[in-house]
């Protein structure tokens, strides 16, 4: 077996521990005589799997009891509509902060369902920083404030949370879920496409404060109503059963093999430090993000020469470092170093970058 | 290894050939050094997988070139809204035929977006038959006619297609997709949740005639617009990548191991005949569906005695026949004998039923 170091922004690397367990259990899960994929979602066997996944998530993320955990489909892109359809129901207005393409998409969708106020934006410098959090002025009448806590494409992360008073804070945490502890009680809604740190593509996890689950806007498709999914324990219709099982395995790995999110954060900080430290001292490569806004998960960098960037991407791929090409809208390179990327992977990448630097100085 | 015979209505049995291949490829797909689950959906490696799945589906189902194949999420329940939101756009009315709980749900959702005419219903006899197809009168001004071609819960299948003239016929084929050939050109839209015959839960396949893909109703969430998905080759956002890979493996199995849908139909007819023939002659068990409306896939039956039904379900489970309990809204028993259920599974079940009959006469 020769597995590559996969720096994909998502879907992305999964822990080998998880993949091995999934492979071993593919034809028969425990003593059930079935694959998890074949289980009726209404069976006792499967009920145990989904509830175990939820309970591990609650434990790892320290989710308060007055929050529901929903296992949905459709990715963050579906949440871009579900959030306004379900939450923009009192004053029909919301505050958005624009820190990249995904928050722009979220805002554009929300504008279709109410009045949107763009509180701040970092579009002026290609989203290479998070706007001054202390300077943001939020509307106390807004139904919610929406932010993208980690920006996959531009490699930024909010250095701290904004003060929104009584207005619920809604955050897209797709590319940082489970990478470090978060104080869930500071949020009204957290949502994530699973395909970075939580499991396979096709599962969307929503963590929502119970008092925010109410009557949605008129015309909201039944499947886009949080209330329907909350009232039915994510079993209104058939959930993405296998992806939830995989998410449970990832949680088990985080708990048993890593020791929880505090430990995961330390490992992620170690990995990020190796890469950022190299970038800060390199004569060829440089990071594109302001130091105070750097993501632990997504690290974009450039040589400053497009041809050299291409050469690097090609040579690194040949050497077993795949998906280092930057997002099609940004160019350059990007190393996504999610939970499953081992420290050795980052060290090996930096060694390769050093060699490339020497050869191309 | 001791795999059970799983008669679940869905998620349901998958071919062992498929599960073994998936298990073997879990850590490394071909020479890519990655699991399919870890692949960027924008990578060449994954592009090949999704296009191969589509091309196998097109070949197996003989899908004409003027139809798009969309790989979506959210199950048939999401289609219940997507169909009216995208198709009820000319005269804002549609015809529905009610043949069970799922078609009722589809109709209820459509009523939220336009005028719905219930053309026929079999509610009077607990949906144990398909209403007279020749007697149905459709509105030539309707934007479409919606039917559920196979009814999972009640075990009925339309004996023939209705004549709808120029009005597009839309059919939910969740529980019969890939079980037999269908003339796709007779339909405007076909849709299916994958979790019966096509792959894991979390994938929804929509086959839609290109001229029906247009501007949806105002306010339709972006992710509920067929046009968005069609224009982006099902890659507007991250699709359920692994489930699509599994669907491709199922198609490969159908093509290479079974020899296509004509052969699959023969096998399915053989299985169904074994079970129906037994039910027709049994002194204890009897089928609940009128002979002319019987499904090849879902076979509900009863003893006529609730206590005996319970005893049968318990004893059959202990003997390795699982998920034979009827739907919670119907009671009795139901054997779902999808593509992956081997002939031996049905023979073994009938042998067990005979023994139970003798012991409980």
UniProtKB/TrEMBL annotation, chains A, B:
Broad class of where this protein is predominantly found: cytoplasm
What family classification does the UniProt entry report for this protein? Belongs to the class-V pyridoxal-phosphate-dependent aminotransferase family. SerC subfamily.
Q: How does it assemble?
A: Homodimer.
- Give the UniProt keywords, A-Z: Amino-acid biosynthesis, Aminotransferase, Cytoplasm, Pyridoxal phosphate, Serine biosynthesis, Transferase
Q: Could you name the domain of life of the organism this protein comes from?
A: Bacteria
What this protein catalyses is:
4-(phosphooxy)-L-threonine + 2-oxoglutarate = (R)-3-hydroxy-2-oxo-4-phosphooxybutanoate + L-glutamate; O-phospho-L-serine + 2-oxoglutarate = 3-phosphooxypyruvate + L-glutamate
Question: Which residues make up the binding site for L-glutamate?
Answer: 42
What pathway does the UniProt record associate with this protein? Amino-acid biosynthesis; L-serine biosynthesis; L-serine from 3-phospho-D-glycerate: step 2/3
- Protein name, per record: Phosphoserine aminotransferase
Instruction: Supply the InterPro entries for this chain.
Output: Aminotrans_V_dom, Aminotrans_V_PyrdxlP_BS, Pser_aminoTfrase, PyrdxlP-dep_Trfase, PyrdxlP-dep_Trfase_major, PyrdxlP-dep_Trfase_small
Q: Where is the Aminotransferase class V domain?
A: 4-349
Give the protein's function.
Catalyzes the reversible conversion of 3-phosphohydroxypyruvate to phosphoserine and of 3-hydroxy-2-oxo-4-phosphonooxybutanoate to phosphohydroxythreonine.
Essential cofactor(s): pyridoxal 5'-phosphate
List residues modified as N6-(pyridoxal phosphate)lysine: 196
Q: Which gene encodes it?
A: serC
């Amino acid at each position: 077996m020769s597995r590559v170091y996969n720096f994909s922004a998502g879907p992305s690397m999964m822990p080998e521990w998880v993949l091995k367990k999934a492979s071993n259990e593919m034809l028969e899960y425990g003593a059930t005589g079935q694959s998890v994929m074949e289980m009726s979602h209404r069976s006792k066997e499967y009920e145990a799997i989904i509830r175990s996944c939820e309970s591990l998530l609650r434990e790892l993320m320290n989710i308060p009891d007055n929050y529901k955990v929903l296992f949905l489909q459709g990715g963050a892109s579906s949440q871009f509509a579900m959030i306004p359809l379900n939450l923009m129901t009192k004053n029909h207005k919301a505050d958005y902060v624009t820190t990249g393409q995904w928050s722009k998409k979220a805002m554009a969708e929300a504008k279709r369902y109410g009045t949107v106020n763009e509180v701040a934006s970092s579009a002026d410098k290609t989203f290479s920083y998070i706007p001054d959090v202390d300077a943001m002025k939020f509307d106390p009448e807004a139904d919610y404030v929406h932010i993208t806590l980690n920006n996959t494409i531009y490699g930024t992360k909010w250095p701290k949370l904004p003060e929104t008073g009584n207005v619920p804070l809604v955050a897209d945490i797709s590319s940082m879920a489970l990478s470090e502890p978060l104080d869930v009680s500071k949020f009204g809604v957290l949502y994530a496409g699973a395909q970075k740190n939580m499991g396979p593509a096709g599962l969307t996890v929503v963590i929502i404060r119970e008092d925010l689950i109410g009557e949605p806007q008129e015309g909201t498709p039944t499947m886009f109503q949080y209330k329907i999914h909350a009232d039915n324990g994510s079993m209104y219709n058939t959930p993405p059963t296998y992806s939830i099982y995989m998410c449970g395995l990832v949680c088990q790995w985080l708990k048993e093999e890593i020791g929880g999110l505090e430990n995961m954060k330390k490992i992620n900080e170690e990995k990020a430090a190796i890469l950022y430290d190299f970038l800060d001292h390199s004569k060829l490569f440089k990071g594109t993000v302001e130091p105070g806004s750097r993501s632990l998960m997504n690290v974009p960098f450039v040589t400053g020469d497009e041809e050299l960037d291409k050469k690097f991407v090609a040579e690194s791929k040949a050497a077993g470092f795949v998906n280092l090409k930057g997002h099609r809208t940004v160019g350059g390179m990007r190393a996504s170093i999610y939970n499953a990327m081992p420290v050795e992977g980052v060290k090996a990448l930096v060694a390769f970058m050093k060699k490339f630097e020497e050869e191309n100085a």
